Amino acid sequence: MTDTRRRVKVYTLNEDRQWDDRGTGHVSSAYVERLKGMSLLVRAESDGSLLLESKINPNTAYQKQQDTLIVWSEAENYDLALSFQEKAGCDEIWEKICQVQGKDPSVDITQELIDESEEERFDDMSSPGLELPPCELSRLEEVAELVASSLPSPLRREKLALALENEGYIRKLLELFRVCEDLENREGLHHLYDVIKGIFLLNRTALFEVMFSEECIMDVIGCLEFDPSLPQPRRHREFLTTTARFKEVIPISDPELRQKIHQTYRVQYIQDMVLPTPSVFEENMLSTLHSFIFFNKVEIVGMLQDDEKFLTELFAQLTDEATDDDKRHELVNFLKEFCAFSQTLQPQNRDAFFKTLSNMGILPALEVILGMDDVQVRGAATDIFSYLVEYNPSMVREFVMQESQQNDDDILLINLIIEHMICDTDPELGGAVQLMGLLRTLVDPENMLATANKTEKTEFLSFFYKHCMHVLSAPLLANTTEEKPSKDDFQTCQLLALIVELLTFCVEHHTYHIKNYIINKDILRRVLVLTASQHAFLALCALRFMRKIIGLKDEFYNRYIMRNFLFEPVVKAFLNNGSRYNLINSAIIEMFEYVRVEDVKSLTAHIIENYWKALEDVDYVQTFKGLKLRYEQQRERQDNPKLDSMRSILRNHRFRRDARTLEDEEEMWFNTDEEDLEDGEAVVPPSDKMKSDEDLMDPISKFMERKKLKDSEEKEVLTGKASLSGRQSPSFKLSFSSSPKPSLSSPPTASLHPGSPGSPSSPGTGARSSPPTAAVTTKGGLVGLVDYPDDDEEDEDEEDADSKEESPPLSKKSKLSS
Fold first, then answer.
1. SS3 573
2. What is the enclosing helix (H) or strand (E) of 560?
3. Looking at residue 242, what DSSP letter applies?
4. Domain Serine/threonine-protein phosphatase 4 regulatory subunit 3-like central spans what residues (predicted)?
5. Beta-carbon neighbour count of residue 757 at 10 Å?
6. Cβ distance 353 to 301 under 8 Å?
7. Where are the domains of the chain?
């Protein structure tokens, strides 16, 4: 496997100071005889050709940048870079370079020396400062070259930045820009673009403060309009002065604050719109610009937060009915942007910020705004509400509980949120999805607090189920009064899916509150009506809801399901889905499989007694036959408690075998067919420690008498229904109309005793791989006969159905009497 640690891209710097990709390969260090020294070798991963062979010179300055880059200069105008896929590989090669040059690998640059030609050019770089060319129109090209050549080296960047600061060079450059623009000197403007862009990449706060000052920033933006790569200059200044307008929704009296807001907007515009997207080598060079914007926002939030007069006026106008709609729209948008700025604050500052807003009455103000008709205003208010919920859901919960003591349910804040979710006009329900997420956060017990005096979970959930749950479930109850949803359009189904998902969340995280609500309001029956929807996603939501309830294994829920025959819509949905192999088919089968695997006895009996006739022909999975087997084992244990206790005794004897009979018993155990062994049964050979035959035969005799009676009844039925006896693999029924069957919603009036594990195979069976089944309807009602493969010996001995009926084979348990 290729070592990814050594995987690199090779870059070279072209004449335009842009990095060109020379290919991808794997780097190594080795002694090269031709170069007489340790060298860096990069071979292409595609064909193994040599991409780079560079001797590690003792005096070359190598730089490590951003943990995965190594940059150096081979000659005056030939810069190279290796970009590593992994930091570990970069560290490994860096150590080799440092080892050759005798340097500590902890440094990021191996040399601070420059060659003679550069010394001449820079007039002794070892001096404290750097002499810049005169700021004249004829020297602009020289200035641009100086800035571009200084960027690769941290040392040069530092000296250049100091020179620009000390000489007030930026202001001189901007004066030159105005001259060039007046003269329409396009070449000079292009050079100024390169110079100003290079100054941004120097990443110095002191330079930014000069460039972003009130008198300079528009000229800086002007310089960046003349990109040499574009045929026509941009018009950023025109946009900022004519299109973008500063709106003071509340007059700001502090001039410093006003100036800070203007500056931040313009610098953000430079970062997002004016500056070209930085390359991989320039990303780190703009970190100071990000920090400048960040700290400006922090300062703005702090200054507004401290201005109590401003905030008081803001909330007063927000809640004043006399405020016109346009003004209120601007106020809400300002507050939204104010909250968005707060996300840049440190945690302790953010706490103080939201505490200030809470004290000023932001939640009552939001309640007023959410009650308005303007969709845009409500949307902005929803965004503000989401900031509050994400920051401190307990604060919102406390407010709505206090509010409920004074106001009607209709105007509670949470009910307003639910109503906006229900009434969302967006076809994709984008707003409803956002609001549902906020509701989920509010009802999530995981973020509720518990103190010594009170438990927020108990108080809030009691409040929610009393005052709000009926509003949330109203669309569901209104749409599920019949056997099918009364409205089945896409938007309604999306809304119902959101509501059912939240109810599913409540089932999982709430206890008796949701249980009482579901059982008292018959919510599960209403939800299962949605399985008849034409939209599969909604039917699946309903199935998930029921699956979550069954997964709790709560007998209160189970009795509710059985009492109301709530598996009926699930079985109908399964049969109506037909033979399609899709999510609905898989979800329903998984639900029944869960009941079987977890051995939920009450539900197993309910399903088999009421829906077996509809499900018995499903043979492409063993789920339903496995359920029938579970059911029969339950009935057998109920009808024969002595036999059940006898099995326990036999099991105990089996696991306390005498050493003298070990070999005989093991041989008998392994010779027994696996198919003879069923859950909870044991075949035990005679041993010295086993109870006497007389003690055991009494329950066995009763069992065999009952079995013979069943077999004789079975024979009569099979004789009368000979057409069924040859069926090998029953077809899958899509409806209940294939034969006279009782209603799914009521149990059969009478049934024969369920088949025992020793039931004989149906006549005409030969192959074990697809054992036939027979479902027979008698005058008394539904008879379920589940056939099981018998012993190999019995298959050989029984030639036809008649001989089998005349002498039924012994069950496994009858072996005990032999």
1. helix
2. helix 555-563
3. I
4. 142-633
5. 20
6. yes
7. 4-101, 139-296, 553-639
Rounded to an integer, what distance in angstroms lies between the CA atom of residue 576 and that of residue 145? 77
Which one-letter DSSP state was computed for residue 759? P
For 361, half-sphere exposure in the C-beta direction (CA atoms, 13 angstrom radius) is 16
Reduce the secondary structure of 463-516 to three states and give it as a string.
Answer: HHHHHCHHHHHHHHHHHCCCCCCCCCCHHHHHHHHHHHHHHHHHHHHCCHHHHH
- Is the dihedral angle over the CA atoms 630, 631, 637, 643 positive or is it negative? negative
pLDDT at 763: 37
Show the CA angle centred on residue 515, arms to residues 510 and 521, nearest 5°.
130
Q: Is the dihedral of CA 269, 274, 276, 282 positive or negative?
A: negative
> Are the CB atoms for 409 and 357 separated by under 8 Å?
no
Cα 391 to Cα 386: distance, rounded to the nearest angstrom: 8
- Who contacts 121 (Cβ-Cβ below 8 Å, separation ≥6)? none
- Amino acid sitting at position 615: L
What is the mean pLDDT of the segment spanning 278-302?
75
- Determine the 3-state secondary structure of 781 from DSSP: strand
**CA nearest neighbour of 628 among 739, 781, 774:** 774
Give the containing element (helix H, strand E) for 21.
strand 19-32
**How would residue 154 be classed by pLDDT, with cut points 50, 70 and 90?**
confident
Distance from C-alpha of 640 to C-alpha of 657, rounded to nearest angstrom: 26
Q: Comparing C-alpha atoms, which of 239, 375, 223, 250 is closest to residue 315?
A: 250
Q: Rounded to whole angstroms, how far apart are CA atoms 473 and 467?
A: 12
The four Cα atoms 305, 307, 308, 309 give a dihedral, to 10 degrees, of: -140
- Position of tokens 């075998």? 657
Classified as helix, coil or strand, 398 is helix
Locate 623 and state its tokens. 């789920």
Residue 528's nearest CA partner among 516, 518, 520 is 518
The CATH number fitting domain 4-101, selected from 3.40.50.1970, 2.30.29.30, 2.60.40.1220, 1.10.1370.40: 2.30.29.30
* DSSP code, position 738: T
Q: Please, what's the b/e burial string for 131-162 (b: 16 or more CB within 10 A of its CB; e: otherwise)?
A: ebeebeeeebbebbbbbbbbbbbebbbebbbe
Alpha helices in 343-455 (DSSP H): 347-360, 362-370, 375-391, 393-404, 413-422, 430-442
Tokens (6 digits) for 572:
């109908």
Biggest distance spanned by C-alpha atoms of the chain? 123
Q: Which residues on adjacent β-strands are paired with residue 781?
A: 750, 778
Closest CA to 761 of 714, 813, 700: 714
Q: Which helix (H) or strand (E) holds 39?
A: strand 37-44
Residues in CB range of 130: below 8 A, 6 or more apart:
122, 123, 159, 160, 162, 163
Which residues sit opposite 505 in a β-bridge? none
How many angstroms separate the CA atoms of 235 and 776, rounded?
Answer: 86
Here the tokens at position 745 are: 């919603």
| Per-residue pLDDT reduced to its tens digit, 102-134 | 888 887 777 654 443 444 344 444 445 577 888
Q: Token pair for residue 431?
A: 């707003």
Supply 18's token pair. 């842009």
Q: Rounded mean pLDDT of 735-763?
A: 39
Question: CA 324, CA 326: separation in Å to the nearest integer?
Answer: 6
Contact 71, 63 (CB under 8 A): yes
CA-angle at 567, arms to 562 and 573, nearest 5°: 170
CA R_g for the chain: 41
The per-residue pLDDT of the chain, averaged, comes to: 77
